[in-house]
């Protein structure tokens, strides 16, 4: 998952202020093969998630579709971006409630996710080393 929020430059105060909700941001994510795994329109702040089965470097591109607002702000837009990767990003209490899992079933799910994450990281390291 990724979280972001934007700020527009304010000429009067000469500082970045929170963007208005009307600002549109487009988020696009490409896998190492250049295949688009996410392409979606969001607001001035948002949360996006994507799943990729290809190990390697991914491209995340955020751009504003509101040129009018960017020009009004003197063309300055600040984006705060928080990217989380791996098994720890899963909300297990939410998964347990949704799937009606027992504590033991939930722990098994967590362990399987950890194994899968380790395999993904090993594959990624192999790709990086060119093996």
Automatic annotation (TrEMBL):
<dbReference type="InterPro" id="IPR015720">
    <property type="entry name" value="Emp24-like"/>
</dbReference>
<keyword id="KW-0472">Membrane</keyword>
<protein>
    <submittedName>
        <fullName>TMED4 protein</fullName>
    </submittedName>
</protein>
<keyword id="KW-0732">Signal</keyword>
<feature type="domain" description="GOLD">
    <location>
        <begin position="1"/>
        <end position="85"/>
    </location>
</feature>
<comment type="similarity">
    <text>Belongs to the EMP24/GP25L family.</text>
</comment>
<keyword id="KW-1133">Transmembrane helix</keyword>
<dbReference type="InterPro" id="IPR009038">
    <property type="entry name" value="GOLD_dom"/>
</dbReference>
<keyword id="KW-0812">Transmembrane</keyword>
<dbReference type="GO" id="GO:0005789">
    <property type="term" value="C:endoplasmic reticulum membrane"/>
</dbReference>
<keyword id="KW-0256">Endoplasmic reticulum</keyword>
<dbReference type="Pfam" id="PF01105">
    <property type="entry name" value="EMP24_GP25L"/>
</dbReference>
């Amino acid at each position: 998952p990724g979280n972001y929020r934007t700020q527009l430059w304010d000429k009067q105060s000469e500082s970045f202020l929170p963007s208005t909700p009307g600002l549109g941001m487009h988020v696009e994510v490409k896998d190492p093969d250049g295949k688009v795994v996410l392409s979606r329109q969001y607001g001035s702040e948002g949360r996006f998630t994507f799943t990729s089965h290809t190990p390697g470097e991914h491209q995340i591109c955020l751009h504003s579709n509101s040129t009018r607002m960017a020009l009004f702000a003197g063309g300055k837009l600040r984006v705060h971006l928080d990217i989380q990767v791996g098994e720890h990003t899963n909300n297990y209490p939410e998964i347990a409630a949704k799937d009606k899992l027992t504590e033991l079933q939930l722990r098994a799910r967590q362990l399987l996710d950890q194994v899968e994450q380790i395999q993904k990281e090993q594959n990624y390291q192999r790709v990086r080393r060119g093996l």
